[in-house]
Structures are given as C-alpha cells and as structure tokens.
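Two entries, shown back to back:
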Amino acid sequence: MNTELIHSHEEAKEREKNRREYPRIPYIESLWYTICIPDKADALYEGFSLNISQGGVLFTTQHIPPLSSIIVLETDLDTLSKCIEIEYLLFRIQDYLFGKVVRVSHHTEKDCFEVGLSFIKQSEKNREDIQDAIELITAV
C-alpha cells in the first residue's frame, strides 16, 4: 500500500481528533431553554444534555431552534460547574447561560433533534444580538 496515503489518512484522523478546542465530557441532565426570538421568547422548552465542554453543549429536544438563534439555557449550574468553568468565562445572568445554536440534526432512532449550542463568552456579551436577546427575555 502507498505509504503517502497511509500518512495522509493518519494525519487526517489526528487533525479530526484535535480539531475541538475543548474536550467533550459526557453530561446527561435535564435542561430547559428559551429561544430568544419574537413569538417564542415566552415559551420554555425541555431537553436533555448529551455532552458538554467549555465551549458548548449538545442536547436533544423535540423542538427545533433556528440555526444562529440565541438561547437562554436553564440547568443545574452547581452540577454543571463541576464539569466546566462557568464563573468567569461564560456569559450568564443569575442561573441562566446564553448560547448560540450552531448545529441542528434530526436523530431518527430517538425521533428527536440534536442541537449543538456554543456558549456565549463574557467577552461577547456586548454584541448586538446578545443585547437584543437580553431585552427580549427580560420583557417577558
């Protein structure tokens, strides 16, 4: 077999393994979220986390949040803080974390949707879309 192909395949596998900035940790817990868009900001949806990292969370739900929408996440922050550092890095208001939907896929076996949520960092809290989401949530 061609050794160039073997090396390039091994390199690709190594890049894939290291492409995540933060390692994922299995984290299976109930969570609730609000989608920060008009006509949905007053609804509370339920989901179940699958894994978490310092960068975000993967969860399942029966409702489809739009890609790029801002979500306010409610979960057990005491337990969550044992898995990731939430005090200084992530933007939160009281017991609510903010995130942006970066991936949605249909999980046919479980008949639900898997949602990839990227946490909003403290350094991003002044973005216009974050301020709009805060205003929308606090108005409800």
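entry 2 starts here
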Amino acid sequence: MRRLGRPATIGACALAVALVAVAAYSAAGGGRRAEIAAGRALYAAHCASCHGADLEGQPEWQRTLPSGRMPAPPHDASGHTDYG
C-alpha cells in the first residue's frame, strides 16, 4: 500500500474522524449508513494505526521522539485533536 504524505495523512484522518463523529450524531436519526461505513473504513485504514481504534492516540504523545517528530495525539468525539 502506498503511504500518504503528512498533509494527506492529516487530511484523511480529519475526514475519517469527522465522518465517525457524524455517525455518532446521526445514529439516533438513522443517518447516512454508507457515509458512516466509509468514514469508519477510511479511519481504520489510514488513521487507527497511529491514533488508535478508540481515538486514544499514541502513548506519551506529548513528548518529542528522538527523530524530532511527535507521536499521534488523541482525538475527541467531535473529531478534533485533543491536546488535553
């Protein structure tokens, strides 16, 4: 599988989390099942490996890695990054 660049990865994760958030919001009203399923699949394929299946982020996400990069932060239920 081709890896996405950082901006594309961030965009894909944001979209997926937003679609999952829409799923939670829409669940009571029936929602758009195809969009919800697509968002879940997109998040699972491109985001969950770093941000976690339950939006929890990577351990010690606030600490800079030896490479100079930051671990993936958690997301809140609305799909926004939760900098706690």
